[in-house]
Amino acid sequence: MILHSTHVYAMGDHPRSTYNPVRVLVVKNARSIELRIKGSYKKVDFNTGTLLEEGKALQKTAIHAQDISFNGIKILPEERTRLYVNNRQFRGIIDILKDEEGKVFVVNHIDIEEYLYGVLYHEVSHLWPIEVLKAQAIAARTYAMYQKLVTKNKFFDLTSDVYSQMYGGRTSETRSTRKAVNLTQGIVLMYDGKIFPSYYHATCGGRTSDVTTLWNINLPALKARRCDYCKMSPHYSWKKEFSFDQIKDKLKASGYDMDIVSIKVMERDNSGRVLDVLLEGKDSDMHLSGNKFRLAIGPNELRSTNFEVRHRDRYITFIGKGWGHGIGMCQWGAFGMAREGFKAHQILEYYYPGADLVRVE
Ligand SMILES: [Zn+2]
Question: Ligand 1 centroid vs 346 CA: distance in angstroms?
Fold first, then answer.
């Protein structure tokens, strides 16, 4: 028998009428993790649900890969119990599992609303106006529900890093982010009656990008929009200089081994983002998509694909605009809109044109 943890948790004194769980990968590729529990808990076999241990508290304990049986462990805390993995507190249930390479990974099963409590802090400043936080809560809820619908992974729906939505567990909650989640409880964005991947990014730099430039999705709610609201963003414009050797090393590390002499932008989309880069080498040339090139150089160094290239001696300078892929809501733009008095639903209507706000409970 496979124990459905979600049911166990839902049967407790959960304050909400519906329990809509998401599974979030919170630790991966680890040799060991540290677990600490303050309060009553049950430890069961992940696959069979057999009770392995019952306790009132657990001192900080290292769990190594070799301590985990093939089946894995599930920790079921009681309502008031505080559970910590690597000193970070998590609500909900924790699975401690082992991957094919024998490394430890941890999955947090948590109600989507409580999950969002732990997301917002990392995605926007908790000091921003409540209308931005509400817009962000709705976008993040929609994104999580979309991932839950489409995920193919057997063990989790979402990761907790920049490639999905940042999530820091209970440790990352603040009063204002909890409030924004509660005020928008159950509300998601839909287009044509369907939940869609409501992408968002830090700063568009003047114009958001059409989703078709990155992914093969044709969705009117993810079309490019002009954005006059993010000019105060510290990422609105930037400059980054590299030596040719640095560029060469970065490209090599990403599998593009060439002796580069120049970089030329060949094609841009209608938002100004680079679609095609020509890398000219001593012996041969190579084309890369703007996105692949950005990932190869490092997405935090080359903050967007909206850049110009300047060559000087043995240096290449990128002069760019914005931070992130540019699709969907511009977070700094949302901040700018809220400061001008726009409400959360207006911010979302602006960045996801034609989308409806629907309460799903
Ligand atoms: Zn913007």
Answer: 15
Name the pTM for this structure: 0.87
Burial classification of residue 82, based on how many CB atoms lie within 10 Å of its CB (0-12 exposed, 13-18 middle, 19 or more buried): middle
CA of 115 to the centre of ligand 1 (A): 26
Domain range list for the chain: 5-118, 130-214+325-359, 237-321
Measured in angstroms, how far is the CA atom of residue 327 from the centroid of ligand 1? 10
pLDDT in tens, 306-344: 999 999 988 999 999 999 999 999 999 999 999 999 999
Please determine, for residue 67, whether its predicted confidence score (pLDDT) is greater than 90: no
The reported pLDDT for the residue numbered 173 is 83
State the average pLDDT for the chain: 90
How many whole angstroms from 261 Cα to the centroid of ligand 1? 34
Q: Quote the ligand 1 centre to 274 CA distance (angstroms).
A: 17
Kindly state the helix (H) or strand (E) to which residue 345 belongs, with its residue range. helix 344-351
Q: How far is the CA of 160 from the centre of ligand 1 (A)?
A: 24
Residue 196 CA to ligand 1 centre (angstroms): 21
